[in-house]
Every structure is written in structure tokens, then in C-alpha cells.
Amino acid sequence: MKPIGITRPVATGAMALEILGLSKRFGDVAALDDVSLTIPAGGVHALLGENGAGKSTLVKCLVGFYRADGGTILLDGREEAIPSPRESSELGIGMVYQHFTLVPSMSVAENLVIARGSLPAILNWPAERKALQAFMETLPFSIPLDKPAGALAAGEKQKVEIIKQLYLRRRLLILDEPTSVLTPDEADEVLGYIKSLTLSGQLSVLIITHKFREVTAYADDVTVLRRGRYAGHGSVAALSVEQMADMMVGGQLSRSENTRQARKAVADQSSRLVVENLRAEGNNGLEVLAGIDLAVRPGEILGIAGVSGNGQKELVEVLIGQRQKSAGSMWVGGQPYSASRAEQLRYKVNSLPEEPLRNACVGTLSVADNMALRNYDQVPLARAGWLKRKALRQQARSYVETFRVKTTGIDAKMNTLSGGNVQRAVLARELSHAVDVLIVANPVFGLDFHAVAETHARLLAAREAGTAILLVSEDLDELLELSDRIAVMSEGRIVFATAAEQADVRLLGHYMAGGHERGETTA
After folding, report:
1. Predicted pLDDT at 339
2. Homologous superfamily of 17-248 in CATH?
3. Which H or E run includes 392?
4. I need a labelling partner for 58 at 20 to 30 A (CA). Which of 94, 121, 354, 433 fits?
């Protein structure tokens, strides 16, 4: 590959991209395995896939955060090495990230100007403002240039992130969930303008989105990844949303009845966890739960399926007390439930949230202390308000032995454990006592085969012991294997529910893709 130099003549107009056999490993994990895709100059290409499919790894190779282990990147037919974000920027590649990168204390104008990187010691600010104002007048949406970025609403910040890349005259623009904090009208306004730039030959676009409506409205072609591998592609005009969803979840694979372990039938008892008309807002103030109804009986696993970003994360957060509901009711064992710590202890509601090191642990505390987060103020770890360190350490040793947590010792910091062992430690804490309700989210994400099998066995054992389990997962195979019933979430609602043994993978994919016109909607 020819090294990139800053003396290269600056090209303009839309860029053609071709990726051939791109691969990237992190230790024993293949994040990308022989992935290829092509975007012609002026094309809009959608990249689809569930969390962990390899989308972020691919685009980080394009913008220079990662160096691919194998494969070729061609820009306008020329093979390129992209060793860092600086070289990526010099080539004309820009990216709008899910998380904002603006400097809050600076004005919109200042954020746009500093994005150029190399600046003279003394800025001709009147000339800069004049150029910025002229540029802003070409856009269909306006943002006050003098307003501090920190004072902008979330939707305005997202627009400024996009404006920043357009102001830098990128030739290839990568959009990572660019409308997550925009209303539908704002999303159409922004994406419609970007589409017009591609049609006029000024820009090529690679968009990562979980919103099929945006794919069908604005993309020309689509590539689907699944577990780091190429899962399919085609022109948007030739594919239905059901076919795209089918590629994402592996619906083309027939489900073997032998994957389900023999288990006792769910007893016909009153539901232990009941949720009615549950509503909640996201961090941007927009509604993300739009009236959820569900019920889980003792000894039952209710699986929640759906394309990521349709409210599953927020549902779990409300149920375990990490997000306030805006309306609706929750009951556990027939009693009103608001997910306070005291109620979770009283009603024996435990959880294994997604990314447990971040959401269920204190990484800088010891393994022993983390294992006591549920009961540090309960007998036998506490008496008369005093913490009994000896009992705490004895409990931790027992958990480590029973759940086979590999650690240098119970005094090791939690953030020194591998992902699988963090999972074991949290499961030990959450399942070592009687549990009436267990809330679980993507429990085996990133784990090796042995850890996956072990975690699944623990969940089934809890189910057999009479625990009511709500299992949220983006792995449809996992839901089909473990669940007694499966419900599909889309746009913050339950849109379909069925017994797992009668589940039709293609029908699940239909509802995951936004097909709401039929089906029982109460889980």
C-alpha cells in the first residue's frame, strides 16, 4: 500500500469505496471475518446488523481507529492504508458518531471552526463567520451560531455534528445511528438533505441504522453483518424489510427442536411480574416506551426480541430502577412495584443487565465487595448497622467456588476479571439466594462457548426453581432455545407474542422489521 501523505492533491466530489475481505481480531474473538462491501460514488449504503455484528469495528477501520488484520480498502479504486483518524480525515472521510463530540463551553461557530484541525495562530474571525453564515444558508435547518454547544437540545447537537462534517466537505460520510435523538420529521429533514447531496455527486454515504424506514426511504443498497460475518446484501428496491431482518437474525436457519432441553410445563399460576401501559422517555426527552403490557408467571421465561434501539434497554432500566417511568403500573407478586432497592430486596427481584461490569458492578471495588452489593446491609453481613467483613469475605469465597469465578483472589478489583468471569460473579450474587423475579439482558454477549453454555444452564436452573424470568436478547437463537414465550418489541411497543415452541422465525422477523398490522400484542 502506498503511504498517505499530506501533499496529495485534494480530491472533491463523492468518493467510491470498496472493501475486500476485511478481517479484524481481538485476541481469540473475530470481530470481522472476511467482510466485503461496495459503495459507488454518490451512493447511500446501509450497514445493518445486531449489536456485536461487527458494524462498529468495520467503520473504525475506515476512520483509522483500528488497523485491519487482513483485507483491502480501495478509495476511488486506489488501495489505501488508513493508520489513524488524521489520515482518514485527509482522505475526505468523515464520521458522525452516536455520542456527541462537541465542546460544550464553545459556541456552535467555534466548534465548527476548530473541527478543521490545523488553524492559523490568529484567526480572521469576521471572515470565518461570514463563510460560516454563507454555508449555513445552504442548509434546510438552522442552528444559532453563537449559542454554546452545551445549551443545545439533544436534537440540535446531533444536527451540529452532521453540519460539522458537511462543513468540512467530506467525500465519504459515515453516519452511526444519526437520527437516534431526532424526531421523525427532523430525521427526514436531515437525511433528505444528505440524500440530495449524494444525488448531485457531492457525497457518498455509509449509514448504520436500526430504523428500517430510513433504510427503505434513503438507502440504495444494503449489507448485513451477523456475528462478524457477511450475512447478505442487495439493492433496497429488491429486498423487503422482512428479508433484511431475516438476514440480521439468521432466520434462514431452521431451528432444531433438539436445542430445547426437556423441561416441566409452566404452571397455571397468577403472574408474578405484571406490567401495564408502561411508558418512559429516553435521554433526549422523546418517548421510548409507548405503552408496554406484559406478564411473567413463576417458572416461566418470557423472551423479548427486537432490533436494538426499540426500547428494550429502557424497559430493563425501568424494571431495575435505573430509569423513571412516565406512566403505567408495575406489580410483583400482586404488590405495587417501583423498582426501589428496598422493594427489590423485599420482593426478591434480581437482575443481570447488559454490560454487567458497567451496569451491575463497581469496577474499582474488590470482587468480595461487588458480591455483597445486594446484601451488605442484611444479616449475616450486617448486624446492628455494622458491616461484618469476615462474613462478607466468607460469602465471596463461597460464591467464587460455587460459580467457578476465575480471579487472583476475592480482593482483586472487579475490572481485572475477564468478561466471562464478571458474568459469573454477578450471577453468583444474583442467584445464590431465592429469586422470585429475574430481569436479564443480553446475558452472553461477548462470551466464549463454554461461558455461554454455563450461563444458559444457570438461567434454566432458576426457571426450574420457580423464578419468573424476563429475558431480553438480540440473539433470536438464544430466545428460541431458552424461552417459553417470545414477544417482539418495535418502536417502544409489544407488537407480537407467541409460544416459543410455535414460533415461526420469519414471522418474528416480520414484526422485528416493523410489521405491526397483525398479531397479539400483549405478552
Report:
1. 97
2. P-loop containing nucleotide triphosphate hydrolases (3.40.50.300)
3. helix 389-402
4. 354
Q: Are 30 and 207 in contact (CB under 8 A)?
A: no
Q: Please give the Cα distance from 458 to 450 (Å, whole number).
A: 13
Q: Do domains 17-248 and 271-348+434-523 have the same CATH topology?
A: yes
Where do the domains of the chain lie? Answer: 17-248, 271-348+434-523, 357-433
Please give the Cα distance from 277 to 289 (Å, whole number). 9
From residue 241, alpha-carbon distances to 21, 217, 236, 259, 307 in Å are 26, 12, 9, 28, 12
What Å distances lie between residue 272 and 321, 336, 348, 365, CA to CA?
18, 11, 11, 34
52: left (phi over 0), alpha (psi -120 to 50) or beta: left
The grid coordinates of residue 308 equal: 436494538
pLDDT tens digit sequence for 290-333:
999 999 999 999 999 987 788 999 999 999 999 999 999 999 99
Backbone angles phi, psi at 236, to 5 degrees: -60, -35
Say how far apart CA 113 and CA 270 lie, in whole Å. 62
Query: Which residues lie closer than 8 Å to 245 by C-beta, 6 or more apart?
Result: 212, 251, 307, 509, 510, 512, 513
Q: Is the Cα torsion angle 102, 106, 109, 111 positive or negative in sign?
A: negative
pLDDT tens-place string over residues 176-204: 988 877 777 788 889 999 999 999 999 99
Residue 203 contacts residue 173 (beta carbons within 8 Å): yes
Cut 0.85: pTM above it: no
**Fold topology of 271-348+434-523:** Rossmann fold (3.40.50)
